Amino acid sequence: MRFRAALGMTCAALLVMAGSASAQQAAWLDSRPAAWNRAGMAVPTAPPDAPVAGLERCRERERAPAQAEEAAIAAAGWRLQEYWPTGRTGEIAVVTATAGYDGMCRPVSFNAFAFAGGRFAGTLAPAPMSSRTDGVLTTTPSVSAEAIAASFTRYAPSDPLCCPGRGHTDVGYR
Asked: Does pTM top 0.90 for this prediction?
């Protein structure tokens, strides 16, 4: 299946809407990005979790892996959450997971991981994202037999954390 190979090496992004960069983290959304995924790469290891008081409370919504793709993500140190179901269509799956939480139990250092035919194909963002920052994934990505679609929230430098003012950038992966 050509889709499997194409997603793994290039993660070609079709930018539907883009603006000027307002943070280094989201600069990849403002122009055609360099490929950050390579065929045959391993699932990236989760970054270390920063100690947060009351973290046990944040972990109450974590869930155990239910599928092979989720088990691969968990084995690399990522945490699966109830509110992020794995998206799957046929042999294509997208698992979203976090490395940790902030003081209000929002995900910190998270990413979405694409699999094709049970093999890791790449991440949907070049680096882990954090809640309330420019370029953060908005919802669970949608998965079809032909593509994966994701939407990323955009903040201007002057936006308060509550209120992103630059809308969303929609990205398609083939």
From this structure: no
